[in-house]
Each structure stands twice: as C-alpha cells, then as structure tokens.
Amino acid sequence: MLSERLVTSVMRFYNKSYLAQDPIELDMMPEPRPGNGYVLYAHVPFCERLCPYCSFNRFLYAEPRARSYFKALRTEMRMVADLGYDFASLYIGGGTPTILLDELCETIDLARQLFPGIKEVSAETSPNLLNDETIDALCERVQRFSVGVQSFDDALLTQMARRDKYGSSEQVFEAVRAAVGKFHSLNVDMIFNFPSQTMAMLERDIELVKATGANQTTFYPLMVSPKNRRQIKTDIGAVDFERERVYYDTICDGLAPDFAPGSAWTFSREAGGMIDEYIVDYEEYLGVGSGALSFIDDRIYGNTFSLREYETRVAAGKMSVCNRGMEYKGKARMRYRFVTDLFGLRLDKQRFLQDFGIPVERGLRMELTFMKAVGGIATDDDREITLTHKGRYLLLVMMREMLAASNDHRDQARAALPPDEKMLLFENRQQCSTHLEECLAAS
C-alpha cells in the first residue's frame, strides 16, 4: 500500500533525530512540573527464555541477580519520590516482572505507599507463570494483567523459542482461560505478520483469543530493529510489510463485534478499558530500572543497560539515567501529540489549541491534509479528530516504526555492554562460544 510505504519512510527519516540519544552525566531526573500528570514505568529485565525477536533489555534469569536488582529498583523508586513525583498509573514491564513474585509484590506495595496517586497498576507475565500462586498474589494488586502469548500455533511458538519453556498452545490456552475474571483487564498479547505465519494460523489465533474469554487483546505487528530484521530474514524469512495490512484487516474483522478497538492495536470487550500503550493517556512518563526510557520535559532519557552499572549508581545515591535525547520543540512536539493521541483513536482539538496556541489545522497542515487525502479521517469537527479503519492502520504503522527505531537504540546499548554481562544474553555454551569467537575476530 502506497500510503503505508510513505508513512514508513517518513517515520524512519524523523526517528533518526527524534529518538537519538547522547551520553549525559546526570545524577537525578528533572523535578516534576506543577500540574503535569505522569505515569511510572518500572523495568524488570529477566526472562527464563530470551526470544530472538525481542530487543528490550533482558537477561537470563538467576535468582540472586534478580533479588539484588529488585532491591535496587525499590531504592531508585524512593529517589523518584524524594524529587516530588506522584503518579496516576504504574506500568511494570520486562523481561518478565513475575519472575520473582514476592519481590514484585513488595515493589508494587512500596510504589503505592510512595505514590498515593496511583489508581491502576499494569503488569506483564509469561504463560507458564500464570498460575494460582501468581493470580492470588496479584489479583488485588494489579488491575491490568497482560499475558505474553504471541501465538496459539505450536510451530510458531517453536520458531519463537517459546514452546519448550512456556508451554504448548493447548497449555497456554488453558492457563489464560483459567485466569479469566480474576483481573479487571486480562489482556492476551499476540504478534502478527511473523514471516512464517500463514493466514490460517492467524485466523485460528483470533478464534482462540475469543474462546479464552479474556476481555482484552493486543495484536502487535512484528516490530524488529534493522539488526534483528536481517537476522530473522536469515533464520526464518523476510518480514512482509505488504501483507501486514491484509492481516490487520483480518484481525479487526475477526474480532468484531465481540471486541472494539481501544487503540490502533488493542481491542476490548468493554468500552473504555485500560490499554497497553501508557503514552496515550499520559504524555510524560518516568522510567526506573535498567534499560527503561523516560519522556520528561519534552526529552527522552535512557537508563543504563548494564546491571552492574545500574546497581553501582543506585548504591551511590544516583538514578540510572545515562543518555538524553533532543528537546522536542514546535513541530516535533505537535507531531508527538498527533501520533500518540490518534493512536488512542481521538485527538482533542481544544486541548491541542490550549497547549500549543494554534489549531491543529495550522500547526500540522501537511500531516492532516495527508491523512484526509488517503481516507484516514472519520470525524473532523470543532471538538475532535477520529480515524477510519484505514487511519487506524496508518497509526499502527507510525507506532510500529517508532518502537522499531527504539529497538535499534536498544540493540546498540546491548552491544556496548561489558563482555561479562553480554554472557548473560546467551542460553548455552555454543552461543557463548560463537560470541567469543566473534569478539576475538573483531579484535
């Protein structure tokens, strides 16, 4: 689709500068600005299995390492409280946040003590950890619980290196179904447009998501950094963006009328449910933990990927931020609002005018003209702009490219890790040996 290719090219051009970060010496994040709303993101970078397509900061799980990390994470949260922050929402991502359940519960409880404004908590888990112990511990602590299913097809799960660790499609399905009704929002995380995924596989995934009884699902397009895109092409096959729109149409049609869109890629049985991308509801967010990102005072900040550096900084009374991006000014700030608001399916024109001093029609004339020309706008009146089905797909493309570009920066940060910490990214001796040979060859 021509409009998809154009949006992809434009986003890749702008993301090079918008998402770039430079090293910075900074002991603390900036203090909160009066009247601003914030969300707190906490990162737990440990998994029992490292999925080959995932670029988030994650290391192989070992209990002593993870317990030490959780302790440092709570210390960093206290630093944030001392700066004067409060939050309306807490999102805990990873990695696998439920990898150490007692530590996670202690962290959530502390967050609610430090930040009394928290009204909702979101957390992620893996299917093998979605059990009675996890549900009993978190059902009163977590309002939105996301299960990383990815697919109900055993062949795809095997290619994703998930089936042997997280269970077969039948086991995953039964685990999700058993958790239905235990959380305000039980979200099933799925991936579509994996190179070897067929239409039949996708249609079966859609039917099984509905059959679980879960009240929310998120279908992410495969979002890989340029490095991982090349690796996946070698191992499995090229990512086909031409069929992405066809698969997206199939998802929307297959989930309707049981599920309605809550964002460009999240669908809920009930209107107004919590969605996965917290940047839609909260423009500014502060990230704690190794590898977390923040968007504060119109800048992106990045935390160190090194576990050792993370704990060393926190022990010295410093936060973990080590990189900072350009300041979003003028058009850049307006474009950020345009993407995040419309990803959530509605741009408030009065709020835009209040925040930027000019109407969106003047501030983003070219962007709005394009969206109208390709049939992406459903409503454009004095109050709001909303999207057609095609418009939702184009916003999915914009977010896909934004997060893929972030993954590229994560790959670079991972490549800069000290050699001993890089060893924590490999699951067996053969992978370690291959990596050592590559390092020796490069030197």
**Radius of gyration, whole Å:** 21 Å
- The low-confidence parts are 428-443
Mean pLDDT, nearest integer? 89
Q: Enumerate how many helices there are, as a single number.
A: 18
Give me the side-by-side strand order of the main sheet: 10-11-9-8-7-6-5-2-12
> How much strand?
15-25%
Number of strands: 18
Major β-sheet profile: 9 strands, mixed
Q: Which of globular, elongated, flat, extended, rod-shaped describes the shape?
A: globular
Note the gap between the termini.
44 Å
Estimate percent helicity. Answer: 40-55%
Secondary structure category: alpha/beta
Characterise the protein shown here.
The protein contains 18 helices and 18 strands. With 443 residues, the chain is of the alpha/beta class. The protein has a nine-stranded mixed β-sheet. It has a four-stranded antiparallel β-sheet with strand order 1-15-14-13, with no helix packed on it. Strand 13 and strand 14 form a beta hairpin. The longest helix has 27 residues. The C terminus is likely disordered.
